[in-house]
Specification:
- There is one protein chain.
- The chain is an alpha+beta fold.
- Helices cover 42% and strands 15% of the residues.
- It has 9 helices and 4 strands, in the order ααβααβαααβαβα.
- Helix 1 packs across helix 7 and helix 2 crosses helix 7.
- The radius of gyration is 18 Å and the shape is globular.
- The model has no long low-confidence stretch (mean pLDDT 95).
Amino acid sequence: MPMALDTTAQDLLFREARTTSAFTGEPVSDEQVQEIYDLVKFGPTAFNQTPLRVVLVRSDEARARLLPHMSDGNREKTGAAPLVAILAADNEFHEELPALLPHFPQAKELFFAERPVREHSAGMNAALQAAYFIVGVRAAGLAAGPMSGFDHEAVQREFLDDDHTPLMIVNIGRPAGDAAFPRSPRLAYDTVVTTV
C-alpha cells in the first residue's frame, strides 16, 4: 500500500532532510515560526498536555548571553544562525490541562499533583513535541540544527526559571550550500521491529 504523503513530501520531511550547521543570512520571521507552531501543535501527546515552551533568541544581547553556555563545537554555528530556539519542558503544564482536556478536567489533580510525576511527563511529552517542531521547521522549507551540547543549568538560569527544563537548542534557517554531513547509516527494520 503506498504512503499517503507523496515522495516529495516524504523527502522534504525525512529522507533528504539533514541536521544543518550553516545557514544563509535570510531571516526567519515570527510569522514563519507561528505557522510552524500552528501546524505542529496538533501532534499527539499524553492527555493532550502541551509542555513544550519555546524561547526565540533573536537579539544580539540575548545571543551574547547564550553563546558562552554553548559547547565549543556549537558556539560558532549558533552565533551565525538566523534564528535560535531554546526548547524547554514546562513542569507546571498541568495548570493548562482543564482547558486542554475539558472532558476530563480532574486529570490535573488525579494524575499530576506531584512534581516528580509532572517532570517525568513534561520531559517525555515536550521531547515528543520538540520532534514535531523539527519536522514542522522542515515542512516550512527551512532546516534545523538541534543540539544538546550546552550547559543546561546555565541556560535554565539565564533564560528560564525553576519550572522550565531546557531540552535542546535548535538553530533554524535556510541551509547554506552543502551545510550538512552525508547521511549516516540507519538501523534495518528487522533490527528495530519485533513482532510477538
